Each structure stands twice: as structure tokens, then as C-alpha cells.
Amino acid sequence: MPVLRRLYDWVIRLSEHPKALWALAGISFAESSFFPIPPDIMLVPMVLAQRAKAWLIAGVCTVASVVGGFLGYAIGFYFFETFGNQVLNFYGLQSGFAQFQQQFNEYGLWIILLKGMTPIPYKLITIASGAAHFDLLTFGAASLLTRGARFYLVASLLYFFGEPMRTFIEKHLTIVTTVAVVLIVSGFVALRYL
């Protein structure tokens, strides 16, 4: 797949750009409230390209994701009937949201902690937290813990196994991207039907 290879090479080059951290922060922020693309799309190549900065990259990704999560919370808290519903409709998640919100009222902290590590879109968690008027301090702490764990885990794996991981990814690019897409789509499907 020459197109996939060119895209991969472009992302690797972008990840080495001096402004790459700002782009990663922007994607991480937006993904937590409305943007459909997970920050891993930049996190992985950035850590592979600059392994010495793995912890800084994971930190930027974490902080931006948590700050963006507060925007998602605000959307759910203040604008759920207008903008929050539109975000859920865009992702096709409106039908399962009532059941999710009921579960959220009972198990909110556990939902944030568990689903924040999965491929399930984090914006659903942030918007639901606001719509349920979940305790803001608990939401922030749980978001920091779960998003930090996820991004630092990815960065750690790439830091310690970087070159073999990069070689594997480059050799099996089609398989790796297919698995990543399947995981993301599975997250959306799980939300819709569970």
C-alpha cells in the first residue's frame, strides 16, 4: 500500500517537526471533547522518532487530554441539550446514551477509570460526566489517572522496545493500521450496542 506508506512517512516527519508537541496537544485536547481521531496517531510516531522525549510527549498528551476533558464536561453540563446531543448524534451514540447515563449515575468513577483506558471514545465519558453533574474534582482526578496511565503505558512500551516496535510497524504497516482501526471501530460499536 504505497499511500499508507507515504502517510506513515509523513506522520513520522511531522512528529520530528519543532511544533509537533503543539499539534499533539491540540489533537489530545480536541479528542477529549469532540474530535474523532485519538491522539495515539501522533503519540506513537513522536515517541518512536524521539525516544529520549517519551515522558515529555506522554505528559503533554495527558495534560492536554485532561484539559480537553474539562471542555467535554462543560459541554455535557451546560450545553447537553444543544451541542452535546449533536456530538453524540455525529458518532451515532444517542440511542445507547440514556442507558450509559443511568449506569454513569451509579458507577461514574469506575466508568471513568475503566473506559478511559480503552478505545471507547473518551469524549463520551467527558460529556456524560458533565450531563450527570458528576463531581468535578473526582472527574479531574480520575481523568488524570486514567489518561496518564494510558499515554505513559504507550510511551513506556515504545521507549523500552522502540526500535523493534518501529521495525515491526514499518514491516507490517498494513496489519498494524488495520488492528488500530478495528480497535477504534470496536470502541464505537461497543458503545452503541452495550
Plain-language structure description:
This protein has 194 residues and is an all-alpha fold. The protein has one domain. The chain contains nine helices and no strands. The protein has helices spanning 2-15, 20-31, 40-49, 54-90, 94-115, 122-131, 136-160, 162-171, 173-193. α4 (54-90) crosses α6, α5 packs across α7 and α7 crosses α8. The model has no long low-confidence stretch (mean pLDDT 78).
End-to-end distance: 35 Å
Oligomer: single chain
Low-confidence stretches: none
The share of residues in extended strands comes to under 5%
How many individual β-strands? 0
Q: How many domains in all?
A: 1
Radius of gyration: 17 Å
- Describe the sheet with the most strands: none
Indicate the overall shape. Answer: elongated
* SS content category: mainly alpha
DSSP summary: helix tally:
9
Q: Would you list the SSEs in sequence order as H and E?
A: HHHHHHHHH
Instruction: Name the helicity range.
Output: over 70%
Mean pLDDT: 78
